[in-house]
Amino acid sequence: MRKSVPRSRNVQKLTELLLCVQQDQITGKLKYEDFCSPCTKENVLDNVKPKFDRIARNGLIRGWQRLALHNGVVLQAMRDPFRQTQCLSALLNGGSCESSEAGALKPARPGSSPKIIRADFTPATLLADGKTVQDEPGWGPDRWHENYPMAKGDKQSPIEINSKDVRHDASLAPWHASYDPGAAKTILNNGRTCRVVFDDTFDRSVLRGGPLTGAYRLRQLHLHWGSSDDHGSEHVIDGVKYAAELHMVHWNPKHGNFAGALKQPDGVAVVGILLKVGKTPKPEMKRILEEIDNIKTKGKEAPFQHFDPSILFPKSRDYWTYHGSFTTPPCEECITWILLREPIEVSSDQMAKLRSLSKNGENEPVNPLVDNWRPPQPVKGRIVRASFK
Ligand SMILES: [Zn+2]
Known about the structure:
about 400 residues; alpha+beta; Carbonic Anhydrase II; 2 domains; four-stranded antiparallel β-sheet; globular
């Protein structure tokens, strides 16, 4: 996990502090590790422990977390390491950064930049110009494993589904979603996708049945798409790529919190819906696309309330299922995929709207957010089961 980048990349010498916290998989207790000079260590831990305990209760601790501190003051805690790094980079460059997840990230004193040491232990390595490894040209899915070994695991997603290899399983039950429109909270652009976030603090919007045991809570939905209509989906069906793919991410509350669920093979269930460009676009997509203008640039977030995502389901509930992973780093292998057979239709204009999002922040040049899909991964002997013949 802590692979450092080659020296030739000129890693910036940073000088104060970066701290990690890890949640123990079994006890749920938090363990701290920091890279600050010993003289400040005790202070810092006293300062951050209550904060982390609070975050952990809300289920936000996901593996290693990094915190920017300035004079012992916590600047920020985020569950999204990519986003966090982007914010840190902005701060290092003397700017400020809006957090889309855990509160505003600002330098402790106006105009001051936080100083950070040892930024070389995650993929979020800061380079001399304040950019990160993943901003570099060429840092694509084929290199994720350099920093996230799991990306080369045996149960990675997406995969190509070949009808001839699929096994019909008559014992697969139908699945049901019961979603509370009041659980929808916000829509955001994190520079990698457009995501709708739901309240998952209790069994409010849940998915049941199908290959699952128990109820899984809806946490977020997001999309993957291409640079043109002929590709963009992650799963490929009998050689066919679709224009986009919608993922509804649910987690199993028996594991305590989302972070805990990420470490368990039955931790997460994702309903995948393929989007195909057609003449009868699904009007239900409108609601999401209407908001795109409000979240054009990375880090933007807008309220998104009273939304029942089940309106996005196709008519048929037929599905394929297999055990796989997240398709973005760290690519945890905790997902029961429920991939729906029937695609939903979108218009070419709707796809163009998605492509109008920018990977860059507000004050940076527009960098179209496109091709945020991961190519199919080796099946490695896994059997894909189908609920239909
Ligand atoms: Zn996804």
